[in-house]
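Q: I'm building a small set of examples for a reading group on sequence design. Run inverse folding on the following structure and report the sequence directly after it, with nothing in between.
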């Protein structure tokens, strides 16, 4: 899998998690454990996306 396709897949997953977080948060009784898990996963993806984008920028600058 190329770096670009990996980044695209991570960004799609990040957007999906954002949607799930919004849906859970707007439920009458949101599950705080579920929200916490989703937010943690989203943050992990954000960090991985940032790392890969830095790697991509470094590779294109070289």
């Amino acid at each position: 899998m190329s770096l670009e396709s990996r980044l695209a897949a991570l960004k799609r997953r990040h957007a999906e998690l954002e949607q799930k977080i919004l849906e859970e948060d707007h439920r009458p009784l949101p599950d705080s454990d579920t929200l916490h898990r989703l937010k943690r996963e989203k943050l992990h993806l954000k960090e991985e996306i940032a790392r890969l984008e830095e790697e991509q920028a470094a590779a294109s600058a070289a």
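The chain has a mean pLDDT of 95.
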